[in-house]
Amino acid sequence: MTLPRQRGLTEQAADAAIDTACRLLRLPSIRNEFNDIADRAVKDQMTYRGFLAELLMTECDDRARRRSERRIKAAGFPREKSLRAFDFDANPNIDAATVHTLASCEWIKKSQPLCLIGDSGTGKSHMLIALGTEAAMKGYRVRYTLATKLVNELVEAADEKQLNKTIARYGRVDLLCIDELGYMELDRHGAELLFQVLTEREEKNSVAIASNESFGGWTKTFTDPRLCAAIVDRLTFNGTIIETGTDSYRLASTRARAEEHIAS
Fold first, then answer.
1. Cα gap 207→227, rounded to integer Å
2. pLDDT tens across 118-162, in order?
3. What is the C-alpha separation between 177 and 207, in angstroms, rounded?
4. Which of 175, 77, 183 has the alpha carbon at shortest distance from 126?
5. 21-75 residue pLDDT tens
6. CB count, 10 Å around CB of 59?
7. With contact defined as beta carbons under 8 Å apart, do 86 and 127 qualify?
8. Helix crossing, 147-159 with 163-172: angle to 10°?
9. What is the pLDDT of residue 144?
10. How many CB atoms neighbour CB 172 within 10 A?
């Protein structure tokens, strides 16, 4: 389709031509924001180059935002969590400086692992999802899953002769977030399948896990001592370990609200 070009377009005709051109070129942000940007350009006496740069940067920024939203959605997080919403004062076991360094995602660039270890209610899952979200926003491919869900998927894939394909799919993402590792005992077959995923990713792509068990207690989940030791090795080599402690700040917060209610 060729747009008619002529000099001396009326404002109405020019707006219609811009709208049509933006649709053809797939520039939705410029189409939606053009009038406001044009009005600001007149008010601020922008040069033609400045006006064009403003239009193009608006489109670029919006495309980056949409890509980020798609990566976050593809990660499969169960809920929204951010570092900004995390209360570091409520859990002094977690060093804010360390977490904000992790938010730079340099560890993902280096394919290093991350382990969040602590009791329920100490912020492990919040931190796991928040750091995964930061990674997705910075352009990394992220996948979140519960440990038991991942193992069940691997077992089903093995039964359907799709194991290699499934392991390869989990191997491709830049960051694999595995939550609730250690909550349930895994049989040897399931543990071996999980080990295959970790081996596929070793020193190639990052794994971040959250567990309510210290490493010494992982023999409850991985009952084969040698396999347990190998999995711990895969998840800790050159990695970062954050111990979130044993005091549930969720429970403390609930108690504090209850006491305030009684007092009032």
1. 18
2. 998 889 999 999 999 999 999 999 999 999 999 999 999 999 999
3. 6
4. 77
5. 888 888 888 888 888 888 888 888 989 898 889 899 998 989 989 999 999 999 9
6. 19
7. yes
8. 140
9. 98
10. 14
Q: DSSP states of the chain as a string? A: ------SS--HHHHHHHHHHHHHHHT-HHHHHHHHHHHHHHHHHT--HHHHHHHHHHHHHHHHHHHHHHHHHHHHT-SS---STT--GGG-TTS-HHHHHHHTTTHHHHTT--EEEEE-TTSSHHHHHHHHHHHHHHTT--EEEEEHHHHHHHHHHHHHTT-HHHHHHHHHHSSEEEEEEETSS-B-HHHHHHHHHHHHHHTTTSEEEEEESS-GGGGGGTB-SHHHHHHHHHHHHTT-EEEEEES--HHHHHHHHHHHHHHH-
Closest alpha carbon to 95 in 230, 225, 251, 240: 240
Q: Can you read off the two tokens belonging to residue 95?
A: 């060093």
The token pair at 243 is 């111990």
Look at residue 259 in the predicted model and tell me its pLDDT: 54
